[in-house]
Amino acid sequence: MGVNIKYGASTWLWTSPFQTSSVEELFSKISALGFDSVEIAVEDPSLVDVETVRLALQKYKLKAVVCGAFSTSRDLTSEDPNVQQNCFKYIETCLDLCVSWGVSIFAGPMYSAVGKARMVAHPHLVHEFISALIQERAPFPNARQLANITCLGILAHESAMEGGNKIRLPDFTLI
């Protein structure tokens, strides 16, 4: 029984930010190097023409993966509701790109801005919770933020299982 392994290359190997003007050169190079797929790093969606990318994927017989770039202005764990909403809008835009390009995988650290220090280990969460109680303040992350992050992962998986169908976030996730 053979294993069918596919190989891909990220646009980040050659350019940042990815934009329409680099599509032809990058995709032809990635294809010529024998890769099966391209990870399209979407740092700024406004720099990418959907149709140009779709046609180039077909031309060079490449499958695509969309990779999100999550900066401090796109941080679901931010305490600023405007930053959270900006992140949700960015994710929705990236999911629209996935649908347009027939992509079933949207990758990237959606849970937080790249490089942000995380308090994820159990002892740290317990310490934060107890400290919040003692200091009479809300813990960070709070239950709503954690539920939102978990919901996003569940819905992303559900969308992938349904061929990339867009799935709206439930009302409780909107802050």
Q: What does this 3D model show about the protein?
A:
With 175 residues, this protein is an alpha/beta fold. It has one domain: Divalent-metal-dependent TIM barrel enzymes (TIM Barrel, Alpha-Beta Barrel), CATH 3.20.20.150. Helix content is 42%, strand content 10%. Helix 3 links the parallel strand 3 and strand 4.
Helical percent range? Answer: 40-55%
Write out the strand line-up for the largest beta sheet, numbering strands in chain order: 1-2-3-4
- Tell me the distance between the termini: 50 Å
Q: In what range is the share of β-strand residues?
A: 5-15%
| Order of H and E elements | EHEHEHEHH
Please tell me the CATH architecture by its name: Alpha-Beta Barrel
DSSP strand count? 4
Shape, per Cα inertia axes? elongated
| Radius of gyration, taken over Cα atoms and rounded to an integer in Å | 19 Å
In CATH's first tier, which class applies? Alpha Beta
Low-pLDDT runs: none
- CATH superfamily caption: Divalent-metal-dependent TIM barrel enzymes
Mean pLDDT equals: 84
Number of separate domains: 1
The name of the CATH topology is TIM Barrel
User: Count the helices. How many?
Assistant: 5
Structural class: alpha/beta
Biggest sheet details: 4 strands, parallel
